[in-house]
Design brief:
Layout (H helix, E strand, L loop, with lengths): L3 E11 L10 E5 L3 E7 L12 H18 L5 H16 L13 E9 L2 E7 L2 E7 L5 E4 L19 E6 L3 E10 L2 E13 L16
Antiparallel strand pairs: 1-10, 2-3, 3-4, 4-5, 5-8, 6-7, 6-9, 9-10
Length: 208
C-alpha cells in the first residue's frame, strides 16, 4: 500500500491588520486541510454590523470544519455549504444584499484519497511544489464573481484542481487582501506509512 501524506509542517503568515482595519486576513490549518481568507475590498463594510474580522473568521472556521468533517462532499460543495452557514449567522438585522456587504477571497486545500484537492475564489494563488519538477500555479477567477459574499452559488465560480500526493513535496496558499498579500500558508508534506494490505475498495489480484 502506498504511503499517504500529511502536513508535517505548516508556516502561517498573516499581515498585521492593526494599522488598516479595511485589510484583514485569517488563516488556519489542520494535519489534513488548510484555509486562507482575506478581505476582498478596501471600502467600509455596509449592511452588516458584525464587521470584516467577524466575517473572515466565521468563514474560515466553518470551511475548515467542512473540509475535514465531510469527505463525502466535494471541495466546491463544502465552500457553498460554508457560505450558507455563515450567511445564516448574520441574522435579520444584516442586509446581505447591500453592495458593501463583507466580501472575501478564499484559498483552501485538503488531503483526500491520495490526492491534494485545492480551491481558489477571488484574489489568491495555490502553488504546488513537485518532486524534481517546476512549481505549478493556479489563480482565482477575475471579475464581479471573484469574491465570497452571501450567495452559496458563488462557489461554482471557484477555480479547483487536484494533484497526486506522491508527486508533491509541499504547497503554498496565498489569499490577497486588496492588492497585497493578506495571508499565506506554506505546507511541507511527509509520507506516512500505512498498514500493509490491499487498498480499501480494490480486490487483490492473485495468480491462479
Amino acid at each position: 500500500m502506498s504511503p499517504t501524506l500529511i502536513f508535517v509542517h505548516a508556516e502561517v503568515v498573516v499581515v498585521d491588520p492593526r494599522n488598516d482595519s479595511a485589510e484583514r486576513a485569517f488563516a488556519l490549518t489542520t494535519p489534513e486541510a488548510a484555509v486562507v481568507v482575506a478581505a476582498a475590498s478596501t471600502g467600509p463594510v455596509g449592511g452588516c454590523g458584525h464587521g470584516m474580522d467577524w466575517f473572515l473568521r466565521r468563514l474560515g472556521v466553518h470551511l475548515l470544519a467542512r473540509l475535514t468533517d465531510r469527505p463525502d462532499r466535494g471541495i466546491t460543495a463544502c465552500l457553498a455549504d460554508t457560505i450558507a452557514e455563515t450567511a445564516a449567522l448574520h441574522g435579520a438585522r444584516c442586509d446581505l444584499a447591500h453592495e458593501a456587504t463583507p466580501a472575501a477571497s478564499v484559498v483552501a486545500c485538503r488531503v483526500q484519497a491520495r490526492e491534494l484537492q485545492y480551491l481558489v475564489l477571488g484574489p489568491g494563488v495555490v502553488e504546488l511544489h513537485h518532486n524534481g519538477g517546476p512549481t505549478s500555479r493556479m489563480t482565482g477567477p477575475d471579475g464581479p464573481l471573484a469574491a465570497v459574499r452571501a450567495r452559496p452559488s458563488i462557489a461554482a465560480h471557484a477555480g479547483t484542481g487536484t494533484a497526486r500526493l506522491d508527486t508533491l513535496t509541499g504547497a503554498s496558499l496565498t489569499a490577497d487582501a486588496t492588492g497585497r498579500p493578506g495571508a499565506r500558508i506554506t505546507l511541507t508534506f511527509r509520507p506516512v506509512p500505512g498498514p500493509s494490505g490491499p487498498i480499501p475498495g480494490r480486490r487483490r489480484h492473485e495468480r491462479p
